[in-house]
């Protein structure tokens, strides 16, 4: 297919050149013979001007311009153009001379032959050369723009594919981390043969469905993310019993608000994983609020380590993912104050139709 396309392009290019030079020949016959009735003389004389016109045009287009002008060798371009002008001027005079000599036998009596003077004939030849050169530069510029645009599109497409692959890799790092902790919770209840195990299995099934089938979507409804956060909290409440205190408040501005899947849930999972009981109680406070164009997410949990570790695999992956999704538009703050580990997140919102 590519070979066929290449052959088609060459054929079109050749056809365009043939049509152009045929048009130049007819221009010469009209320009030189306007007002003359001796068409045979004019046609023959025009034919003698064609070789020097074609050779001079292609010499400039195929040699001088690409080797010197386009490579910004301006001094050499001007120098060799001057040489070309001197040599071509002589060649044009010779072409005119031979055209006059070998066409003279066609001259009829009492009829006009050429209606243009020698300087005008020379100007006419250079006019055609300038037109041919200008057309070649226009075409070159057009094709270069198309080529540059195609290269730019390919580069952007490659960058997008790399970004998608990297984002997918970050998601796959989050999934086992989250799933491992959830299964540990279920394992503990299975050992106790708790009656709450079936309800836990149902909630875990919903979470697995979310992780395996929904997470590859570019975005999900915020209310779905909230529902799975509720399911996760319910699982943890069942596991911690009286030793857990969770306060989850949410204020959603728009029911059609969308966010990337599994964006908030890892923060919640991280709070339970690294949270520490103080006086026998693990406390987790979550506040979620949306406005017309932003989402604010605040979560804190009890902790006895006042050193903030921002480089753990969970938070590190989340930070990379936020950067890839929102760039500088997202704001993530992580701090630890008075036995409280605090995470504050702000992201721009995408609202559904």
Automatic annotation (TrEMBL):
| InterPro entries per UniProt | Bact_2-comp_sensor_kinase (IPR050640), HATPase_C_sf (IPR036890), Sig_transdc_His_kin_internal (IPR010559)
Under Gene Ontology molecular function, one entry of this record is: phosphorelay sensor kinase activity
Q: Which SUPFAM superfamilies match?
A: ATPase domain of HSP90 chaperone/DNA topoisomerase II/histidine kinase
Determine if Acetylation is one of this entry's keywords. no
Key word Transport present: no
Query: What protein is this chain from?
Result: Histidine kinase
Could you list this entry's UniProt keywords, alphabetically sorted: Coiled coil, Kinase, Membrane, Transferase, Transmembrane, Transmembrane helix
**Membrane-spanning segments:** 12-33, 45-65, 77-106, 118-143
Source organism, top-level taxon: Bacteria
**A Pfam family this chain is assigned to:** His_kinase
Report domain Signal transduction histidine kinase internal region positions. Answer: 166-244
Please name the Gene3D superfamilies in this protein's record: Histidine kinase-like ATPase, C-terminal domain
Q: Which residues form a coiled coil?
A: 146-173
For this UniProt entry, what's an example GO CC term?
A: membrane
């Amino acid at each position: 297919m590519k070979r066929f396309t290449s052959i088609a392009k060459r054929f079109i290019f050749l056809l365009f050149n043939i049509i152009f030079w045929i048009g130049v020949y007819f221009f010469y016959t009209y320009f030189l013979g306007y007002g003359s009735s001796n068409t045979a003389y004019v046609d023959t004389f025009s034919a003698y001007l064609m070789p020097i016109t074609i050779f001079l045009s292609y010499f400039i287009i195929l040699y001088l311009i690409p080797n010197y002008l386009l490579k910004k060798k301006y001094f050499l371009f001007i120098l060799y153009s001057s040489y070309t002008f001197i040599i071509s001027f002589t060649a044009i005079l010779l072409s005119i001379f031979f055209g006059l000599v070998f066409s003279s036998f066609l001259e009829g009596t009492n009829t006009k032959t050429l209606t243009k003077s020698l300087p005008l004939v020379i100007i006419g030849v250079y006019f055609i050369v300038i037109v041919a050169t200008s057309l070649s530069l226009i075409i070159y510029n057009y094709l270069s723009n198309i080529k540059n645009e195609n290269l730019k599109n390919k580069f952007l497409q490659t960058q997008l594919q790399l970004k998608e692959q990297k984002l997918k890799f970050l998601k796959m790092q989050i999934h086992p981390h989250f799933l491992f902790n959830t299964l540990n919770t279920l394992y503990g209840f299975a050992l106790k043969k708790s009656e709450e195990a079936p309800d836990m299995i149902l909630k875990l099934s919903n979470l697995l469905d979310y992780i395996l089938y929904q997470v590859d979507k570019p975005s999900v409804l915020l209310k779905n993310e909230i529902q799975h956060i509720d399911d996760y909290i319910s699982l943890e409440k069942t596991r911690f019993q009286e030793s857990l205190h969770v306060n989850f408040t949410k204020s959603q501005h728009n029911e059609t608000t969308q966010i990337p899947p599994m964006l908030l849930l890892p923060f919640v999972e991280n709070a339970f994983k690294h949270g520490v009981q103080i006086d026998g109680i693990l406390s987790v406070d979550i506040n979620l609020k949306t406005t017309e164009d932003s989402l604010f997410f605040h979560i804190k949990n009890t902790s006895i380590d006042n050193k903030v570790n921002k480089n753990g695999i969970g938070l590190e992956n989340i930070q990379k993912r936020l950067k890839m999704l929102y760039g500088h538009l997202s704001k993530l703050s992580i701090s630890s104050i008075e036995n409280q580990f605090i995470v504050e997140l702000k992201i721009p919102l995408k609202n559904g139709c």
